[in-house]
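DATA CLASS: polypeptide
GOAL: derive structure tokens

***
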Amino acid sequence: MSWITMPFGLTEPLFVPEYWHPPSLFDLAIKTGFDIESLIFSFAIGGIGTVLYNLIFKRGYVEFPHTERSHRRHSLHVYILFVPVLVFGALSLFTELNHIYCGILAMFIGGLATLYCRPDLIEKIWIGGLLFTVLYFIYFGSILPFYPDYVELYWNLENLTHILVIGIPVEELLFAFTFGMYWSGLYEHLYWKKLMKPLVIS
């Protein structure tokens, strides 16, 4: 899942400089729109977003039964996997929304669409979103005490809502929630896996 997520780092030119203008190795982000850090970041959050819920709740995987795969709700399985891409593309082409909002809406709708095929993932999707938001909040919060002007220096706040949560742009937290929401269940949806039921000790 990390390798699948990493290429999304190549979308950075959509966000630079309209959303932010990040510091990067060799100033690549400013010079080209692309940067190495975005690929590393995407690789990392892909794996973390996928396993965070399972690590905390000690859940493993089993194969999704073939008998259940033929259910009518799975007839749109492949198409639903591409819902976020389609929504992002439509919003980018037909609205003037900042791309960060396009991404947030695309992942949120993608998460809801996943539930059509995989209602068994409802708990993981919502809790996964909350867990990733908490982790992102801790990550971001660990930077600000050492670099208090970090957000003001690198985010184009005039293009955003100007809403900060303890110094963190609300857009970053919405991104974290919707990413965790969609990505936490993507592995199961993509590879026909099912969460094992937790063991009940009597």
